Amino acid sequence: MISPTPNMIAEKHGPVGKLIFNKPAKHNATSTDMWEAIPVILDDFEKDPAVRVVVVTGAGDKAFVSGADISEFEKARSTPEQVAYYDKIGEIANARLTKCSKPTIARIRGYCIGGGLAVSLTCDIRIASDKSKFGVPAARLGLGYRAAGLKNLMDLVGPAYAKEIFFTARHFSPEEALGMGLLNRVVPDAELDAYVDNYCKLIGENAPLTMHAAKRTVEELARLDGKPDFGRLTGLVKECFASEDYIEGRTAFMEKRKPQFKGR
């Protein structure tokens, strides 16, 4: 597919859809056009049954996403109306990443800072190079963070680490981030691509309806209001048991072969 802006790249490789922040000269700092492009790209990935997993990453080897493009502020965030619009499209983009019906992996190399860290938190799995750096510099800029963003972080690392990340505003190593629970895996930089590719292969071979049901169940159980929609979750489980994939999974097990799931 073609992305609406050259600053975001959309690629498909078999069962993998790749969403790439493409501004390497500025460490993939985000701008208005990039936020606007994310829902468009995800809509296409979600409509394509061949795409089983979405990888979110940054171009080049210096950064995943380093935060907002400060150079854009003068022309795009200088009035209250512009600030409100920028905040709105950023929220929409992050919400679409969070709500993506397919498994998402953040492939992280280099700087993962501020808004970039927030993007990584919208993904289901975070796999990082051992040369990555993490942090939220809000306290050095006088910025306030919304409750939803802080909750995403706190759900992963807990209240104490969330406070440390915000209070110190320092950069954390991948090993520290892994110890906090911020990351799923840290791998040697030279092995990052092969490791992510292998995870995509593992996920791509599994039953889409089962993964979707699990993802939505975790989402409901983590709701801010503490009121999961158990009726919805029961329906998702029933959908799995009523699917052709469930028949295929049982048959393949009995025949001692690899199942071929179709997502229906």
Automatic annotation (TrEMBL):
Keyword Lyase assigned to the entry: answer is yes
Instruction: Tell me which UniProt keywords the record has, alphabetically.
Output: Lyase
The record, for InterPro entries, names:
ClpP/crotonase-like_dom_sf, Enoyl-CoA_hyd/isom_CS, Enoyl-CoA_hydra/iso, Enoyl-CoA_hydra_C
**Any one Gene Ontology molecular-function term assigned to this protein's record:** lyase activity
**GO biological process: any one?**
fatty acid beta-oxidation
For this chain, the family text in UniProt reads:
Belongs to the enoyl-CoA hydratase/isomerase family.
**Name under which the protein is recorded:** Enoyl-CoA hydratase
